[in-house]
Amino acid sequence: MTRIIAMDASPLTMSLRARMVPIVSTMLASMLPLAPVVSTAPLVPPAGLLMLLGWRLLRPELWPVWVALPFGLFDDLFSGQPLGSAMLTWTLAFIGIDLCDRWLVWRDYWQEWFIAASCIAFCMIAAFLIAISTGGGGYILIIVPLLFASILLFPLAARLCATLDRWRLMR
Predict the structure, then answer these.
(1) Could you tell me the CA-to-CA distances from 114 to 16, 18, 57, 73, 107 in Å, in that order?
(2) pLDDT band at 12, cuts 50/70/90?
(3) Against a cut of 0.70, is the pTM above it?
(4) Which of 25, 62, 131, 170 is most enclosed, with most CB atoms within 10 A?
(5) CA separation for the pair 161, 157 (Å, rounded)
(6) What's the pLDDT band for 13 if we cut at 50, 70, 90?
């Protein structure tokens, strides 16, 4: 396992690059549904959620729990989900991760993957149920392949966050 560079300063006193890289990378990942892909089934994983979870699990001190609200609003605007669904589910996922942080003293790779998989499954299933309750249609089985693909893609998102973290903390 690679060693992550420690942050020397608080997030408020860091350089502009160090503060903006996590925000911009998460927002760009949330804009992935704008890609010109035409299909009858969901194909694009929730990349914004994957990046948000990757940053939260890599650097818990970087963002407070409430930061999931504006990121969820941004994702709702670009994903086509009912407004407020990602805001609610991502905030509840962040609260769950915060509770896990208080309960677990340290985490290894597999525990982080399990935490992320639980959050991804919760957010995707809850977003599907919210979409159904607001007039959407479809069967829950249609998101199962995307759910498994998203869970399997989380290590790639975590690796991307770690690479971006090394770059943003370089002097």
Answers:
(1) 32, 28, 11, 25, 10
(2) low
(3) yes
(4) 25
(5) 6
(6) low
